[in-house]
């Protein structure tokens, strides 16, 4: 398989790529699952060197499959960040076993800690904070936590964000006393305005952990709407619903151009704005998303401040 020809930092940007978007996409990350990763023959052929690859752990996926995927992608030269969903982990011994396997077999040094999308915990853990409190992640170089710009009704059942905000403040306190680099990796959204408001609001509340904004990669509109509903995407779902009403656009794939451009311009105009990076959910396929990202300027790999 021929390798993708990546643009070097001093080469001209791709046609139509603005400096703002190119800077914003620098250091993007990608999320995969064992079954989707199997479809990629060689990640070196589609992703820039150094791209962080998250490995989502869906309930029911054997830990053996998770570790094998991490080992394979790590061997291809990419930093891997497996998910640790609290509510599917039975107990401390299970958590310790998972960590030992990831570290021993795949050299994992990074982790995304989250509550997980199941209603009833499998055991003693219910939140990422409880995972952190075990001390088992001490020594990890990076610990990311989940963020929800449009709220999370699994946590704040009244539709507000009081509990989520309290949890973010707790994580900020932890970030202040840990040597691990931290970031908030968010659910994907489709409207820039609410995201900007949310980032500014958590920053004003004292939460300064850098945000890695979730972005849905290119996909068929019907696919996008299905995943958005299943993942609990909030008000910004109306962007897709409005598009679905336009017959001329119904059969065209959704691409995140407008969403990313608005955020990129805002970041360029406000350098201290809290979004540090883009995290892609490749709903239309890993290769499709990787190609879109690199063609739009995201071929520079992970910046030094995120290594």
From TrEMBL:
Keywords in alphabetical order: Oxidoreductase
Keyword presence, Oxidoreductase: yes
Highest taxon in the source lineage: Bacteria
Matches recorded under InterPro entries: FAD-linked_oxidoreductase-like (IPR029041)
GO molecular function: oxidoreductase activity
Name of the protein in its database record: Methylenetetrahydrofolate reductase
Organism: Gemmobacter lutimaris
